[in-house]
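quick one, 440 residues, struct below
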Amino acid sequence: MKDLTEPLLPELHQDEDEDICEKKSINLSRLGTVVVITFTTFILLLIILVAQLPPQQTMGMTTIGIQTLSSNLDNLGWVRTIYGEYKLFPDICLAGCDFDEAVAVCEEQGGHLPFIQSEEENEEVKNILSATPQSVWIGLISKYRTGSWQLYKTEDAATYFNFLTEDTEESQDEDARCVILEVDDGGKWRRTGCSQRKDGKGGLVGIICQRLPNVTEDVSMRVMMGKSACDDGQKGIERDLQDLERDTECNKKHNNDDRIVKLKEGTETMAEHCDKIHEKYVPNHVCMNQAVDYSGFGIIPTHGPHRPNWASFGEYSYLPIERWQHNLEHGCVVLLYHPCLDHHEVTMVKSVLSGCMRKHIITPSRLPSLTRPLMLLAWGCYLEFQFKDLHRMRSFISSHALGGPEGNYTKDGLYTHLQMIKAEIPEGSDRKDSIVCPQL
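---
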């Protein structure tokens, strides 16, 4: 007799229930397996689809002191550089584009054909084109007078040229009024007719456009240097030129003591002044719609906030502090002279700095006084001069050249307003200023 605690069911029915439970367990296990396989398949398909999308490309990364900058290709294909953003359009004009067609494409994209204004900018464009070795139009025309080249749709005369050696005005016909950049020829330029669709080797002429970036901040929320809607080195610069007349004229209307002064003969006795700057300090980049505030940085700032675009190296009839402060961060040595300093002595001292390094700035200013009418500045330090001590000047330059968080950054600046003389590489040195004051 069975125990009363057991179910009062026939033996057969009990076995059938056990079989049903076992089958349900197996079915649930199978269902779980199917779900896992389905989910895994979905993920794999998603990965494959993503892989088929246009690849994200990155430009070569340039280390700048403690900061690393990367020109990234965003999801629309625009490559960010300090000269603006560029984008290739390889799938437009499959039979090649003429100049006007290329212009129309770029303007539809809110940009323009590239305005290439330096060797470094030309190199940047050439690198972007290296992925697709195709000739492209650049924004240069000579439509109104043969040999007189200007940026198209502007009144700005071209100041930089990179024509092929054999491509001269005399070697071209009257219709060669536009310019293409040929990657196969090392990024050199060739004059050609504006209606042409093929380059000198029979290849199709394509399109690359340039525009000002809308995004002006990096991941750390710092305004990025280079051309952007924040600061393109041209628009709104009048904000920083309010002291131009006062800083460039020796006139009693600015100061009753104004008079022509000279440096004394002898050895400079003034000690250089250096500020203690925290190694992690990073100066702010201030857009053109805001004033730059130097309060709290001393009477003579050796570091501080500045505009996103630094000045092209060389001499200026006037360069505001908002620009040359950025040059200090890039390792430049800046020469400031009082507007009343004797012209001949200014000329002599300028030759000392320009002969020592390429990365230099020279401009009049009223930061130097009438009693100490000359001043050299570098990142964190300055030295005032009342004596004509050329040896001490060279010593300061040698000691402080290429200082600053981005002292190893060699690219020239984009701001050129009132530039008189563009810096050249001193004899015996190179673009990196590897040898400072090579004449010593």
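Residues 303 and 380 are 6 Å apart (CA to CA).
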